[in-house]
Specification:
Layout (H helix, E strand, L loop, with lengths): L4 E3 L9 E3 L2 H10 L7 E5 L4 E10 L3 E10 L7 E7 L3 H13 L4 E6 L9 H22 L6 E2 L3 E2 H5 L6 E4 L15 E6 L7 H9 L3 E3 L8 H16 L2
Parallel strand pairs: 1-3, 6-7, 6-11, 7-8, 7-9, 10-11, 10-12
Antiparallel strand pairs: 2-5, 3-4, 4-5
Length: 238
């Protein structure tokens, strides 16, 4: 039987009976045809895994919470990805894989070379869509702390916020990750398709971000983000 992990945005207390939300109930009943009486895993973002027994699988699923245990899947590195918004499914893919690799927060940003234009209700809807992708990535990868997808903002707004160990990636930098001392917290700024402009790189540097080189080849934005995360986790995280 496939091991099932589901997110529930509610307090989870051992011994309680809980009716799962519509999405989780549909997934168990219609997609998995999960049998009554079997156990599943739940999480709500508090860093624990909860074991629950499926009591009823008719119209809505009811479970009983049996026990909990700390989840040790989180990285020692607290990493924020500040990502220029990429087109369509590319941004969805990037966010999914970034969460699987252990990112703690994602800040989507609008830059000079962003071709994606989102405002008002469309922007709010897209942020909710991205947060749902993040939750799905947590379910799949075994994480029990759900990374936040911040409200998308302009780069200049983001640069006004205080940053600890900020890095801006571009292919003309000289410093590499091997030149950086061991750290436990970092923020990584990466442009969209077409990269950051010279002016934006200068603005980021003035705001305290260190220019960083990944290698001798020019990488696509989704490649650069995931390579940088993976290397940072290898050096400083898990």
């Amino acid at each position: 039987m496939k091991h099932v992990r589901l997110y529930q945005n509610t307090p989870l207390n051992i011994g309680d009976e809980l009716t799962l939300d519509n999405d989780a109930s549909h997934h168990l009943i219609k997609v998995l045809r999960f049998p009554q009486g079997q156990n599943i895993s739940l999480f709500n973002g508090d860093g624990k895994n909860y074991t629950a027994k499926l009591l009823d699988a008719k119209k809505h699923c009811t479970v009983k919470l049996l026990d909990s245990a700390p989840n040790t899947a989180e990285s020692k590195l607290n990493l924020t990805l500040i990502q220029g918004i990429a087109k369509g499914e590319k941004m969805d893919f990037l966010m999914q894989k970034a969460v699987e690799l252990g990112v703690n927060k994602i800040i989507p940003i609008f830059t000079q070379r962003c071709v994606v234009k989102l405002t008002g209700a469309k922007l709010i809807k897209r942020q909710a869509h991205w947060q749902k992708i993040v939750i799905g990535a947590c379910e799949q990868s075994g994480r029990s702390v759900v990374p936040e997808v911040a409200h998308p903002m302009r780069l200049d707004e983001c640069l006004q916020q205080r940053v600890v160990n900020g890095f801006v990636l571009h292919h003309r930098a000289e410093k590499t990750l091997l030149d950086v001392d061991v750290i436990t917290q970092a923020s990584m700024l990466i442009g969209p398709e077409g990269g950051l402009s010279e002016v934006e790189i200068a603005q980021a540097t003035q705001a305290g971000y260190q220019p960083l080189l990944l290698g001798s080849r020019v990488l696509r934005t989704e490649t650069a983000s995931l390579v940088a995360i993976a290397n940072m986790q290898l050096l400083w995280g898990s």
